[in-house]
Amino acid sequence: MITKHLRHCLLPLAAALAMTTSVATQADTTYKVIGQPAATGLVQKNKEKPFFDNFAERTGLPINADYKPVDQLGIKDTEQLRIMKAGLFDIVSLRVSQNSRDEPTLLGLDLVGVSPDYATARKVYEAYFDTLDERLQKQFQIKLLGAWPFGPQILFCKKPISELADLKGMKVRVYDQNLAKFIESVGGVPVPLGFTEVHQALSLGVVDCAITGPSSANSSGWPEVTTHQYPLGFQMAVNGYAISMKAWNKLTPEEQGKMLAAFTELTDDIWTYSEELTQDAMNCNAGQEPCVNGKKFNLANVPVSDKDQETLSTAVQAISVPTWAEICDKANPQCSTNWKNTVGKVVGIQ
């Protein structure tokens, strides 16, 4: 028989258990998440993965995340939009350039030569966000939650290089059409390759040079199979986070606000972290100090010539924008007009 005193003790406990059970039931929602390739390194390892591993805590929502890097799922990073449209995942860490064949509008975030530094890249992103979000919702039923850069995408070569002209006849790994067109313009032979294929391709001589960020190159051991790094930043390798509209529409307006706030905090953090990693990795790749986060190698760090800076700058209006606009306008008739009305105003291109 339960005494009056014991009943008074048990009632709060029962209420607490009921509340715990209720929260636990709510937390049974689990999002399936496609992450960045683990091979890309420290942004994925130290920022992205911890965020999704602690998703409920970071968002303040009773939702867990089943997070897996794309290179561990057996999915090509060029197929992310199609997979999201098919409803197979709830959130994707979207590889922007790699998916631009399926949606050329994406590449407006990161055209060759448009963003020579982090500050400009941030302005481009903020100017273009709403335009890109609207397009992704319409075409692929996903909503953009935020974007961030890996950092300047530079050249790594296994043959001596002192300027862009040295690329003549060399096979160069690229990851989108815009970059391929630029490499062609300086005499190189563009070879499209997924990131995880590059180390072996360099080792076997399938390509002579490859383009990526200094930190990603360091994490994946590219300096083991190259001799020179040329820090001319072609693009910023912007990547985004997007949620399926099906999952988004199940959230209340308040929950949507919490979700957006969490991803804004994450992407802001990565913007800062990316800039720190880039300089550190440049030092590490060349065997210089300070080298805090990466592994030391001994690449020749080739100074960028003023001539090559000018070549890249000139290419924006001569190659990057018109090449992209022709492709994008076929898929999305207002594509280049929308870009010029947003990004174009920020970077002075009309």
From TrEMBL:
Keyword Signal: yes
CDD domains in the cross-refs: PBP2_TRAP_BpDctp6_7
UniProt record, GO biological process: transmembrane transport
Signal peptide stretch: 1-27
Entry keyword Signal: yes
Protein keywords: Signal
InterPro entries for the chain: DctP_fam, TRAP_DctP_sf
Protein name: ABC transporter substrate-binding protein
Species annotation: Orrella marina
